[in-house]
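User: tokens in, sequence out, please.
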């Protein structure tokens, strides 16, 4: 932690997420907000640790930090600081941007007075996120939001610092998009000096940040004009550079590669393995794309490989550029539609799951006709021969959820439908529990449960199945309250079990509004879940100790007979909090 605060130029080993924190400090960030979500969690955790341990008292005009109730609120808070002329940063995982997008798109229209950086971490392969393999880059295109993509911790620090400069220069939020391998990668980072922070100067002109028509259409025109200026800035940016370009030869080789983010590192590893010196266009400023840079790069090639994770975001735009400057260019990247591994096109890359170095090595080998010493197919065949025991993720030993899950299986009728939500209790869907019939998004356990409960099933089908849904304390604060209000308002009758373990467990034990302590370690008034539930109009409410089996069984059976919505707050602290 002390290394992050060093004010002497030197190299220190940092995670990608920690390097983002350092970049923000060097940029003079004033305001930081987040909702914890892996793979971005360490960003907020690092800022919080700096505040709680009071290690930044020597920094002039100290920054403010908070764990917000959800990502939308976090983004709105950061926007408020940026409207006031300050430098703000808001961090979240890819699925969190879905929640925040309702506020993000209008803020791009209004612009900011100070600077605002939005850090979003994608999770190819769904290593920490159960919902989808979302590719956040399309948000940048839809929102007209400038986007930078670092590939390593050094760039995480540098790009974050530059993002603040771009935001301040063009008065627009800027996204820094990472993926799990960038966020959780460790490497030496050359650090600079920590900047002094601006003092707030509130100078909001009445109506300036309001998107009321017809002003909103004027804002869009201003935004598009601003984007053209940023595109020219991107074309001249050092974030986009050609690697291994043979300066002594004015003729381009026949084959080039375009890559961004972590994909670039895989490309460089592959060309080294193959002993090739291919021209590689490394894109760090990926929206708006540097169109002239791309056109100049591809115009004399016969073949180009676009290496990127998940969707063909760059490839589509490279293909569009090629129609003008090199119509005969053969472009490799995404597999042909409706293809599978058995009939894959040579040189294509998978778009399902995390991109792996061996996939990139194989693709470049096939296109260049340069054989690798590493035989990937043989490696796969040997791996498949291993008799590996399938192992599912499990709850921690001593976790109170063990008791709750076993009680649910015992107390609920055979045809009960179980709803799941986002948190440690997602593991209810894994053996040995197997009691989760859906898992969609934060708070959706209650929303979906309401929809199922309202259905009138025919006599030939399951008659009036019982619906039990499980949601955690942090998730309830995040997105469960509106769904609960809707359930009560529309006279539904699921049994909702709120698992209150006094922390945000799955992402690293961050505080939430029910804990009584802020992200800066300050004491605050804890918001009681039972007060909210009662205020929403729930009549059938009971707080039960999660570890008391008989009380749980009795209450579950009693509430399943109710014709109105019922809520059980199963309360027992996380084993790590308790100890």
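Assistant: Sequence out:
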């Amino acid at each position: 932690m002390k290394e992050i605060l060093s004010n002497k130029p030197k190299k220190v080993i940092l995670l990608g997420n920690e390097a983002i924190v350092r970049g923000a400090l060097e940029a003079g960030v004033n305001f930081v907000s987040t909702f914890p979500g892996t793979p971005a969690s360490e960003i907020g955790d690092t800022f919080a640790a700096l505040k709680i341990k009071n290690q930044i008292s020597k920094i002039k005009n100290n920054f403010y930090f908070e764990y917000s109730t959800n990502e939308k609120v976090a983004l709105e808070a950061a926007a408020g600081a940026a409207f006031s002329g300050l430098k703000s940063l808001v961090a979240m995982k890819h699925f969190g941007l879905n929640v925040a997008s309702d506020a993000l798109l209008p803020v791009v229209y209004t612009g900011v007075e100070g600077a605002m950086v939005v850090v979003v971490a994608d999770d190819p392969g769904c290593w920490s996120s159960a919902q989808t393999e979302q590719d956040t880059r399309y948000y940048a295109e839809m929102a007209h939001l400038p986007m930078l993509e670092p590939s390593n911790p050094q760039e995480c620090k540098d790009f974050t610092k530059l993002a603040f400069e771009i935001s301040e220069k063009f008065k627009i939020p800027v996204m820094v998009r990472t993926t799990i391998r960038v966020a959780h990668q460790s490497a030496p980072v050359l650090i600079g000096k920590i900047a002094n922070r601006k003092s707030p100067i509130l100078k909001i002109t009445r109506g300036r940040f309001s998107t009321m028509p017809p002003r909103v259409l004027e804002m869009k025109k201003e935004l598009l004009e601003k984007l053209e200026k940023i595109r020219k800035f991107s074309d001249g940016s050092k974030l986009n550079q050609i690697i291994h370009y043979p300066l002594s030869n004015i003729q381009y080789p026949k084959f080039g590669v375009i890559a961004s983010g972590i994909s670039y590192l895989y490309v460089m590893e592959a060309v080294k393995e193959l002993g090739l010196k291919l021209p590689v266009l490394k894109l760090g400023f990926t929206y708006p794309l540097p169109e002239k840079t791309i056109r100049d790069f591809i115009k004399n090639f016969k073949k180009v490989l676009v290496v990127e994770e998940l969707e063909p975001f760059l490839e589509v735009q490279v293909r569009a550029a090629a129609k003008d400057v090199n119509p005969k260019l053969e472009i490799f990247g995404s597999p042909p539609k409706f293809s599978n591994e058995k009939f894959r096109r040579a040189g294509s890359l998978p778009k399902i799951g995390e991109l792996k170095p061996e996939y990139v090595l194989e693709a470049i080998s096939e296109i260049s006709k340069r054989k690798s010493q590493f035989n990937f197919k043989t490696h796969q065949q040997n791996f498949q021969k291993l008799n590996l025991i399938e192992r599912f993720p499990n709850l921690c030993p001593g976790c109170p959820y063990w008791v709750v899950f076993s009680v649910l299986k015992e107390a609920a009728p055979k045809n009960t439908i179980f709803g799941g939500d986002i948190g440690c209790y997602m593991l209810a869907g894994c053996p040995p529990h197997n009691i989760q019939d859906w898992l969609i998004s934060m708070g959706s356990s209650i929303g979906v449960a309401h929809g199922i409960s309202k259905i009138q099933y025919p006599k030939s089908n399951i008659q009036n199945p019982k619906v039990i849904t499980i949601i955690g304390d942090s998730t309830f604060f995040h997105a469960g309250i509106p769904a609960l209000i809707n359930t009560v308002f529309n006279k539904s009758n699921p049994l909702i079990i709120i698992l209150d373990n006094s922390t945000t467990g799955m992402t690293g034990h961050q505080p939430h509004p029910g804990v009584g302590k802020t992200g800066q370690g300050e004491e605050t008034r804890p918001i009681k879940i039972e007060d909210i539930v009662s205020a929403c109009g729930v009549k059938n409410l009971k707080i039960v100790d999660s570890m008391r089996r008989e009380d749980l069984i009795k209450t579950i059976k009693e509430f399943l007979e109710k014709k109105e919505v019922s809520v059980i707050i199963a309360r027992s602290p996380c084993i790590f909090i308790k100890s």
